[in-house]
Amino acid sequence: MSYVVVDVESDGPIPNKYSMVCFGAVILDPSLTNTFYGKVKPISQEWEAEALAISGFTRAEHEAFDDPKIVMDRFAEWLKTHVKGRPIFISDNLAYDWQWINYYFHYYGNGNPFGFSGRRIGDLYCGMKMDTGLNQEWKKKYRKTNHDHNPVNDVIGNAEALLEMKKLGLKIPSNG
Q1: DSSP letter string over 90-142?
Q2: With a threshold of 0.90, does the pTM exceed it?
Q3: Which among 62, 106, 147, 149 is annotated as catalytic?
């Protein structure tokens, strides 16, 4: 199995009514060099300016991005190429990020290669520390790359934190 850290930016709170703008992924290994970046054009006429602004793109820029089917096919191929065994979806905000990737894979692809589950980094950290109140602490302590809502930067920062947690004793199987 291989852990794949994923981050999504969107122009609203839910798939289908709104659109994914872009997403990033990185294979969790010490090099953090196997990354994917996808930008997808809107699938809906509805969008929230405040949500879109987080991504740093304008609506006109968003409308010029690639067709979602093309991007999701590229992502599926990237996963096949770089993942050994079953991919495990892991993110900062699992409930948010997974819903977008799952929807887009099912609607524009051939099913979600991650299946129907994943891991949330904050929960792993809280479990390590035996304290559910430490949900945000890991972000400040272990991210090295600035969290700037570029999804590739964000996944690298989250992966850096996971690798630090591994040094502290969190058992994460080696990819492969």
Answers
A1: EESSHHHHHHHHHHHHHHHSSS-TTTT-EEEHHHHHHHHHT-GGGTTHHHHHH
A2: yes
A3: 149
